[in-house]
Amino acid sequence: MQIVRTRDELRDVLNGARAGGRRVAFVPTMGYLHEGHLRLVDRARQLGDIVVLSIFVNPLQFGPSEDLASYPRDFDRDARLAHARGVDFLFAPAVEEMYPNGRPLVTVTAPTLSDRLCGKYRPGHFEGVLTVVNKLFNIVRPDFAVFGRKDFQQVVLVRRMVEDLDMQVIIDALPTVREPDGLAMSSRNTYLSPDERQRALSIYRAITAGARVFRDGETSAAAILDAVRAVFAAEPDIVVQYIELVNPRTLDPVTTAGPEDVLAVAAFVGRTRLIDNMTLGDAGA
Ligand code: AMP
Q1: 144 φ, ψ to 5°?
Q2: In terms of DSSP bridges, do strands 262-269 and 238-246 run parallel, antiparallel, or are they unpaired?
């Protein structure tokens, strides 16, 4: 595995590696790798001949009161894990390398879709995400890019960017990888105290409760959302930011639920903001 710090070097090495029509599969991350990230790497290895993993904590997608400074980082550990999992090129640029002009003047926005769900509470977040993903795609020029459905709204927006801007990349999205008890793996789980870690499980319990009600025949969104809220009602130390049942393409709230619709939650456990979601038809996934 080769560690690459600059855009020019990455373009150079990839131009060589691409010779003979070899295809590039790309996994963008913010590092502090866990099994969820590494499954994306496994998938990238299936899809492409060359696997590029990026680690970049993108300042553009953090709000002023968010956790940019404290976001967990452990480059040496990440590099070991990436190497062991078969990454060919680990791209880990500095902030000044990605944003030599400071805050970019030209950005990618997706009004309406990016104002929903998390976007409502994290203004500018998805503009930051789409802009950095676009830049990374331009640098890596991947044939495939692999994302996790854990960040459901992100996948919807990236797919839409690729469609609307005619980008030549195939997007793949993988199911959420969970801890054995159901908690969605997240780099931010490291912020949780042992007590908070236990409480955090309510998020998974809540969305599975909603999905179960649907599986048992209930299609009223109000009734499904009530089942989700009931789980949180028993856990007063969790502050729910939103609970929504939405159409997976438009992100519009639905009133009558179908198997494709997605139950999405954001909640604070102590000071840690966690998100999770479940497609109703995948109850238990
Ligand atoms: P992050 O480093 O949190 O920005 O995540 C990088 C990529 O890994 C994104 O596509 C995420 O959706 C994906 N990812 C993060 N956590 C998980 C998980 N538990 N299961 C599957 N994919 C994940």
Answers
A1: -130, 145
A2: antiparallel
Q: For strand 89-91 and strand 50-55, is the pairing parallel, antiparallel, or unpaired? A: parallel
> For ligand 1, what atom is nearest to the CA of residue 175?
21
Structure tokens at 93: 């640029």
* Residue indicated by tokens 């990605």: 98
Contacts with 181 (C-beta within 8 Å, 6 or more apart), sequence order:
201, 204
pLDDT tens digits along 79-93:
999 999 999 999 999
Angle in degrees, CA 220, 212, 277, rounded to 5: 85
**CA-CA distance, 30 to 188, in Å (whole number)?**
11
Cα angle: 110, vertex 112, 115; to 5 degrees: 90
What confidence tens digit (pLDDT) does each residue in 222-244 have? 999 999 999 999 998 999 999 99
Residue 176 CA: which ligand 1 atom is closest?
A: 20
Angle formed at CA 255 by CA 284 and CA 260, multiple of 5 degrees? 40
Q: Are 180 and 204 in contact (CB under 8 A)?
A: no
- If one residue of 38, 75, 151 were mutated to test the ligand 1 pocket, choosing by the most ligand atoms within 8 A of its CB, it would be 151
Q: Which positions ≥6 away from 223 have C-beta within 8 Å?
A: 213
